Amino acid sequence: MGKTIAYARVSTNQQDLARQLDMLEEHGYDKLIQEKFTGTTKKREGLEELLKWAEPGDTIVVESISRLGRNTIDILQMVEDFDKRGINFVSLKENIDGNTPSGKAMVGMFAVMAQLERDLLVQRVQEGLTASKKRGKVLGRPKADANKVEQALSMHDSGCYTVAEILRLTGISQGTLYRALSQRKDLELMEQATALEEEQEHQQERGN
């Protein structure tokens, strides 16, 4: 019989895990993983530990499905991945249990919604690229003040500086910073869309 792994998360250091821990303890678990993850923190060590520990036959239980992340498609894909790996998923607040008929149906719906989100993302990126080309917009890193722009982006990602501080310390304009952030986002979306298209092609090849 597999083990039950409980996962609790809050998004700021000021928030308390007590309510989640009480519900998880009432449900019961063999191992507890907890973390405080903020929007300025890119690495989620607790979630990585959860994914490392979970094996086929195990059950992952959370207080609410939103504890898995803030991004809808990431949450949906994570639940879908649990199902593919043979890991049961339980969310107490939404009353989801993959071992029950209704829970299986919910997990199936998540898989469909995740695929829909992937398809919509690809479509949005393609539409955005087409619109950008019509406007003569060139995707890529800003050429002017490249070193200062890279420094500004790093400062922005750290979450330790205000926009005013970044502009003052790097000497770039607000428009340059926002253009750099927008262009980087375009590139990230392009990479995501490419990866999703490749994944869909691989799935079709495996299906054939």
Give a brief outline of the structure:
By secondary structure, the protein is of the alpha/beta class.
Task: Explain the layout of strands and helices.
Blueprint: E1 4-10, H1 18-27, E2 31-36, H2 45-53, E3 59-62, H3 72-84, E4 88-91, E5 96-97, H4 101-134, H5 146-158, H6 163-170, H7 174-207
Parallel strand pairs: 1-2, 1-3, 3-4
Antiparallel strand pairs: 4-5
Helix pairs in contact: 3-4, 4-7, 5-6
Q: The CATH topology of the largest domain is what?
A: Rossmann fold
- Spell out the helices and strands N to C: EHEHEHEEHHHH
Low-confidence segments = none
Q: Helical percent range? A: 55-70%
Provide the CATH top-level class of the largest domain.
Alpha Beta
Based on the coordinates given, report the CATH architecture of the largest domain: 3-Layer(aba) Sandwich
Q: What's the end-to-end separation, in Å? A: 35 Å
Count of DSSP helices? Answer: 7
Please indicate the count of domains. Answer: 2
Strand-pairing-aware structural class: alpha/beta
Q: In what order do the strands lie side by side in the largest sheet?
A: 2-1-3-4-5
Question: Given the C-alpha coordinates, what overall shape results?
Answer: flat
Number of strands: 5
**CATH homologous superfamily placement of the largest domain:** Resolvase, N-terminal catalytic domain
**Gyration radius from CA atoms, angstroms:** 21 Å
- Average pLDDT reading: 79
Strand content: 5-15%
Q: Main β-sheet, in a few words? A: 5 strands, mixed
Quaternary class: single chain
